[in-house]
Amino acid sequence: MTTPVSRLDDTLAAARAENRAVLVGYLPAGYPSVQGGIDAMVAMVRGGVDVVEIGLPYSDPLMDGPVIQRAVEAALQRGTTTDDVLTTVRGVAATGAPTLVMTYWNPIERYGVRRFADAMVEAGGAGLITPDLTPDEAGTEPSDWLGASDATGLGRVFLVAPSSTEDRIRWTAEQCRGFIYAASTMGVTGTRTSVSDAAGTLVRRVRAVSDRPVCVGLGVSNGDQAAEVAAFADGVIVGSAFVRAVLDAASPEEGLVAVEKLAADLADGVRRGR
């Protein structure tokens, strides 16, 4: 039986066999509405996104830049809940694309770790990306994240950064399931005119201690940058550029067109990166 997390592994393996990187696209749940967010994520998949990363709106984001914050604040003002995020997971996972939730840890603790894990499985979600939770804080008890993800088979994606020590990179890589998230710059998210030189160095440092796929996030905004990152990484993660495409659109319908067009440009980039 193919499970959501095995679909993630299969997607990563298939891209590697094709000698290309995967394209991971991020949008927050609940913007411009719950259904509007689902429609935008489906448009990303239609345009060529391989893996979808759904943001769980949170009032105190540590990594989110101003573009993502605008969309998240609007989603929260509209009353987006954790259950709405799970509804979004269900709607996006129906496309067949592996679907992850990117979330700060406080909302998951409040919801109940095992309760959320079970709900993710039921919705067809592949796992979580947890930017403010490190493996040594994740806990192995059934009510903790390592324990709950082991019990449910969900993927778990932790972050490494240019400041991470070799021991930290090795330990984090050992605890990841799915891929390793390499944050290519120090600081908050946002599109940039060039990709950080630190990205390639960080990927090489991870590969020195692990053969797990490494996906690079923070800064990619167009197909040329995606090709640049795809030349050395297993995956290219794009968030702010997709959010801006929705924010800047004159209508939700135009937003869907813009998102799909951007996804197609980025998908072309990851395919010509090697």
Molecular structure report:
With 274 residues, this protein is an alpha/beta fold. It has a single domain, classed as Aldolase class I (TIM Barrel, Alpha-Beta Barrel), CATH 3.20.20. It is 49% helix and 13% strand. The protein has helices at 4-17, 34-47, 66-77, 82-93, 105-111, 113-123, 145-152, 166-175, 198-207, 223-230, 240-247, 252-272, and strands spanning 22-28, 51-55, 99-102, 127-129, 155-157, 159-160, 180-183, 214-217, 235-238. A nine-stranded parallel beta sheet has the order 5-4-3-2-1-9-8-7-6. The model is unreliable at 186-193 (pLDDT under 50).
What is the fold-level CATH name, i.e. the topology?
TIM Barrel
Strand content: 5-15%
Spatial sequence of strands, sheet with the most strands = 5-4-3-2-1-9-8-7-6
Q: How would the global form be characterised?
A: globular
Total domains: 1
* CATH fourth-tier homologous superfamily: Aldolase class I
Characterize the largest beta sheet: strand count, sense, and whether it forms a barrel. 9 strands, parallel
Percent helix among the residues? 40-55%
Individual helix count? 12
Question: What is the level 1 CATH name?
Answer: Alpha Beta
Structural class: alpha/beta
CATH architecture annotation: Alpha-Beta Barrel
